[in-house]
Specification:
Helices cover 30% and strands 24% of the residues. It has 200 residues and is an alpha/beta fold. Strand 4 and strand 5 (136-149) form a beta hairpin.
């Protein structure tokens, strides 16, 4: 397999078909094939214990690249609220405890920010994508989008913290954006486009 061939195929270090679909939408129109890592469910899970998105993403990519000859893509992303010390940060998915749903995570966040106004509600979504091949890191890129936390959820689209993340340029929460709008402005969309520049 040539380097060119390898770069046209990315294996996602995930067993989540929803995440795969999201990346496939971002890759639409590109000469690129994306698929889930074969046998992912049978591989011991990588412990995401680092304190930064970059370390978690790189760690995952390097770890799972040992189970494939292809380029392996892994990411770590989350919500950062500077006035709250950067939380939930790398704990975004586990913010309200292991097994908690999106509603519980949002409720905890809104409770912490109750009474906060203005810049105290400023926030950003961050995504770091890492790509590795056979135990060697190939690329690490990141994307960020700035916004603010609403006082109550708005919109029924998206997932995670999208309903309370307000995006001022479009005057909508992330849960109110169309798929095209979200792909254009999201942290994951920005990071993925940067990755395509690096791999090209």
């Amino acid at each position: 397999m040539t380097d060119t061939d390898a770069r046209r195929r990315l294996v996602l270090a995930s067993g989540n078909p929803g995440k795969l679909k999201e990346y496939q939408v971002l890759a639409a129109g590109r000469d690129l094939e994306l698929q889930l890592l074969p046998g992912y469910a049978n591989i011991p899970e990588f412990p995401e214990e680092a304190s930064t998105f970059a370390e978690n993403a790189a760690g995952k990519a390097l770890y799972y690249s040992k189970y494939s000859n292809e380029l392996v893509l892994a990411d770590d992303s989350g919500l950062v609220v500077p006035a709250f010390g950067g939380a939930p940060g790398v704990q975004s998915a586990r913010y309200a405890g292991v097994g908690a749903n999106n509603d519980a995570r949002i409720a905890k966040l809104l409770g912490v920010l109750d009474g906060k106004t203005g810049l105290e509600r400023a926030a950003c979504f961050v995504c770091v994508i890492a790509v590795a091949q056979r135990g060697q890191c190939v690329a690490i890129v990141s994307g960020k989008v700035d916004g603010e936390i609403l006082k109550s959820p708005q919109g029924s689209g998206g997932f995670g913290y999208d309903p309370v993340f307000y995006f001022p340029p479009l005057h909508k929460s992330f849960a109110e954006l169309t798929a095209n709008e979200k792909n254009q402005h999201s942290h994951r969309g920005k990071a993925f486009r940067r990755l395509m520049e690096v791999l090209s």
